[in-house]
Structures are given as C-alpha cells and as structure tokens.
Amino acid sequence: MLVLRDLSLTEGGVPHLAAVSVEAEPGRMTTLLGRTGAGKTTLLRAVAGLVQPQSGQISLAGNDWSRLPPWRRPVAMVTQQFINYPHLSVLDNVAFPLIRRGEPREAAREAAAAMLGRVGLAQMTGRRPAALSGGQQQRVAIARALVKRAPVLLLDEPFVNLDYKLREGLREELAELLRSQSDTVVLYATTDPREALQMGDCTVLMAEGRVLQAGPPRAVFGAPATLEAARVVNDPPINLLAAEITQSGLVLDHLGPQSPGATGRALPPGRYTLGLRAEDIRSGGPLPARVALTEVSGSETVTHLMAGAQPLVMLERAVTDHRLGSELGLMLDLGKALVFGADGALILKGASHG
Amino acid sequence: MRTLYLALKYLAVTLWSGFVIFPFLWMLTTSFKTANGVTGGATWLPWLQYQPSLGGWQSLFGGAGGVNIVRPYLNSLVVTLSGSAIALILGTLAAYGLSRFSFRAGPIRNGDITFFFISQRIMPPIVLAIPFFLMLRWLGLLDSLPGLILIYVALLMPIAVWVMVDFFNTIPRGLDEMAWMDGCPPVTTFLRVILPNVMPGLVVAGMFCLIFGWNDFFFAFTLTFTKTQLLPVSIVALNSSVTPWWALSAAAIVSVAPLAVLAFVVERFLSRGGLAGAVR
To answer: Residue limits of the ABC transporter domain (chain A) (predicted)?
Structure first.
C-alpha cells in the first residue's frame, strides 16, 4: 500500500499541500479529484520526487521513500503534455526505461514492441514521436509508463489535451491495460467528476492543497461531506440555495416559501444551505425563470437561468433549444436536496443520493 | 508562366553564385600571378593572358620574400580547436545550469548572469587586451599556446553560453523529469536525453566558436611576440613595402579553406533538417 502521511508544501506563502494524507491500495485506481490548483499535480510530483514536501512521509509497503531522488523511486508517470524523447524512435522511447534499468537491449526492445502492440501502435515503432498525432504520442507515453511495471503509476490528467472521442476511447483502453497490472498502485488526477466516477475505485476530493474527503466514488458523490466537497464533485455545478426552516415551513431566500417536504420536516428551525443538483431541476413547473445561457454537450443540455435574484443551473438529458432570454417554468425537486448546516457540513442527504 | 518563373529563379541563383564565387576566383588567379600579372589589369586565363607562377605559394613555405606559415597554421589549428572545444564544453554546461536552475545573488538573477557572459563580447577587445596581457604575464603564459588557448576559451565561451541557453530553453523541463523517472540521474539525463536534443545548437555554437577563434587577429597579435605565432599574424608578416598580392591571395585561400570545409559540413547537416523541428 502507498501511504502518504501529512505531506505539506508551501511556496512563497502559498500552501500547495496542507497536511495531505492518502492511502492507496495496489490493484485499485485512486482518483484525485479537484479543480485546477487543488494540489493534485503537486501531490503526484511529490510522490515521484519531483518536488520535496517540507514535512510528511511517503512510503510504499512500509518502505520510506521520502528522501529518495526521483531516479531511485519505482514510479511511472504520464503527464498532460505528451512528453516523449524526441530524438528516439517510438520503439526506443518505450524501451528506454528498461534499458536504463539494465535489461538487455534486445529483451527491452521486444517488451517495448509487445507493449506498443497493446496500445495499437505496432505499425509505428520506427517513427519519431513528432511524426505521430497527439493521441498516438500520448499512447507512446502510456506504453512507456506501463512497460516499466512500476509499483506506482501516476496519471496526471493524461487525456485532458485530447479531443472528446479520443479521450473516451483511451480511457477505456487504459482501464483495460491496468487490469493486467493488479499489483500496481494507480493515482489518477482529474478535474472531471464523471471521469473520477467512471474510472476510480476510490475518490479523493482535493481543494487548495487539502483533502476534503476520501472514499468509494458513489459514497463521495452521493454524500459530499461539506459544501466545498459538493462544489468539487458536481459538474454541472450544484445549485446552492440559502434557506430558512421555520415553524411554518421552508423558505428559500430568493425564491420564497416552498413545500417543506421530507427535508423541511426532518430538520429543526434554523438557517441552512440546500444543495440541489442540476439534474434535480426540471422544466414544466410553476417557478418562473429566465434563460441566461444554454450549453449543448453531446446528448445533454445545461441551461443557466435566473429565477429572480437566484442563479440556477438545470441539466436535461436531451438536446433542447431554450432561447436566450425566454421564460421557463421550473420544478425544483427539493426532496433530493443535500442539506448543509451553517458550518458547511452535510447534515441531511437527499432522497435518492447514494 | 512556370518556365519564366524557373528562368528567373535560375538567373537569380546564377547571379548569387557568381557573387559568392567571384572573390575566390579572383584570389585563386591572383595567387598564381607575378608582380607583372597583378599590375597588368584584370586577367583570367593562365598562359593566354598571364604567365602562371608558383611564387606566391612558395613564399608561404619560406620561399623568397615570404614566411613559413606551416607552424603558425598548425598553431592556429591547435588554439582554435582546443579553445572552441573547451569553450563549447564549459559553455554548454553553464548554459544548461542557467536554463534549468534558478540562481540568486542579491539582485542578480539568471538573465543577468547570461547577460554578463554576453557582455564580454560587447566590450571592445582593447578593453580586454591589457588585463589579458597582465594575467598571462603573471601566469607565465605569454607568447605560448596554453596561454592563447586560455584566452580563446574566455573569448569563445560567451558565444557558446549565449547560443546554448536559448536551445536548452526550448527543451521542456518535463523531459528532464521524465528521464529522472525512467531511472536516469542528472548527469545521465544531460548526456543521454538533453544533449542529443540540442545537437543543432552545439553545431551552431561550435561553428561560431571556430569562426571567431580562427579569424581572430587582435589577441593573437597582442599576446604573442616571436615564439608562438598564429596564422593571421603570420599572414600580415607577409606584407612588405610592395604589397605581395600573389602571396596574400595564396595565404587567404589556405586560411579560408578550413572554414569552407566547415561550411560544407554544416550545410549538409542543415539541409538534412537537423536544425529545424528537432524539438517539438
């Protein structure tokens, strides 16, 4: 097991890692989910030894790595950029780490050729990386990382610079390839909650260099522990509605009294924040709202609306054409809302989440 | 239209070739002339227009009225090649350091250090001549090959640093890091991964060093007396009250020959696309 304990790194007064602790098991993919600047890349670089945390410990199977230089750490890494050795052929690129490790050149090249076959580049072995497309270059980088069979594999948003279709395809291929490396600890950094949900066996939510929450993806998605965690795990962004529960019922700050439902009845009077996912808002209801922006992505439509002074985001599993500025009647499914207390902690999970 | 374009293109190339070749042709014909041949107006055809003579060439090898340039030629080769090689090695290492590490000394940063190197070439040579003279005298290396090599290293290294810093900066730092994670310590990373990707830069920097080193007259003249002479100084020694154009032309040809060979070698390298797109 890879254990990261209390890793802290501050540069120029900015905390990049703040007492980060993560445990990752072999044979399981641990996804680090967070926005840009959350500390995911810094954490991976700390594991690889490319940055040195000011405190904390990194150990694999009980062996402390914290002071080892990068060339002594048994890690492989794939980064966002397609980093390959420009002066070497595709085959020699993949064989390079094996040769550096002292394996006979011919054996290394055979292993590299086999790995290139697995990533679909068997016909490209003689080419230079610059002669390949972006997706092919990234496959070379992935092949080089996998052929080492390093105990720790670090994937830093490996598909973020690729187009949508290619990303989907490579994601599936990678999952397939990793199935054969069951003794490998995989850390996968991503900003995409869907990717974390789809690929990970364990999700670690990060923000501003801190770990917000860790656990099985469905549990993390279903019950984000804090408002901040709810913001990180939801894409499209979760709707946050300031609310007050009184003796007479539930009142949303900008939208007025609402039917209390199970949520309102279960909680004592006080101030709360309701987290309502974009898919829990539907059109065809009584709440008037004006369309501010419509984004069609694949077979889904994300509509940004203003209901009075309250901004809302609605997700529909269909391609719809809401014209800019037009009026829509909305239905808020408040029974599914996550309820956060005044301190931002989750105190009630909606009806169908988790 | 296409034929006209081709014709114009060939005409332009022919004119340019003539422009480049003409001085060499002039030197070559002059080197086989005598005093009479030189003063009798422009002549081109040996035996028909002038009587060819080997006098100019013989004067380069200790013939009548000449000097023997063999020793100075070898001295120039030794000083230029050694100085360039050492400057290239030290300059490349310095440039890699300046490209990859952040240096701070008070208000001084990497850019200032790079400029410091370049500033050595901005100063007029005369500013350096006296300190160099005094330093070599103190070291007991005046009028010696090691002394000249030392000075040439100091003069050529800024060129190497200046060229190589830019080349190293084009190589993403991620490449160094990837090599580390593939098991290469820093020195191996530099030799096996980074250096092969800056070969075009090394060629350019080496070319500049060789050209500047080979052509230098000023320091070769001010830091030597009689014992150690370099080619440019010995060529000047050919001059007398009557300018021996035939001997000077022969000397110019032998002096430009190594650089012409270098130009051909580098041109072949350039035409292979070595300099373009080596790094993504």
So the answer is: 2-233
For residue A248, give the CATH number of its domain. Answer: 2.40.50.140
CA A260 to chain centre: 34
Looking at residue A352, what is its pLDDT? 58
Mean pLDDT of B54-72: 84
Regarding whether B156 and B94 lie in a shared domain, the answer is: yes
Q: How many CB atoms lie within 10 A of CB A56?
A: 17
pLDDT digits (tens, 9 = 90+) for A276-324: 999 999 988 888 999 999 998 878 899 999 998 899 999 999 888 888 9
B42 contact partners, CB below 8 Å, separation of at least 6: none
Specify the pLDDT at position A255.
Answer: 83
Both A28 and A172 in one domain: the answer is: yes
The ipTM assigned to this model is 0.86
Residues 132-151 of A with CB under 8 A from B: 144, 148
Range of the domain at A126: 2-223
Contact flag B174-A69 (C-beta cutoff 8 Å)? no
Task: Output the six-digit token pair for B191.
Answer: 């030799």
- Give a yes or no: residue A234 inside a domain: no
CATH number at residue A50: 3.40.50.300
Question: Would you say the C-alpha torsion B178, B179, B181, B186 has a positive or negative sign?
Answer: negative
Q: Is A101 within 8 Å of chain B by CB? A: yes
- Per the DSSP assignment, residues forming a β-bridge with A281 are A332
Query: Cβ–Cβ of A100/B182 closer than 8 Å?
Result: yes
Contacts of A85 in chain B (CB under 8 A): 175, 178-179, 193, 197
First to last CA, chain B: 38
pLDDT tens per residue, range A152-196: 999 999 888 777 777 777 788 788 878 777 889 999 999 999 888
Query: Does any domain span residue A161?
Result: yes
Q: Report the domain count for chain A.
A: 2
pTM: 0.83
Mutate to test the interface with B, among A87, A88, A148, A153 (most CBs of B within 10 A): A87
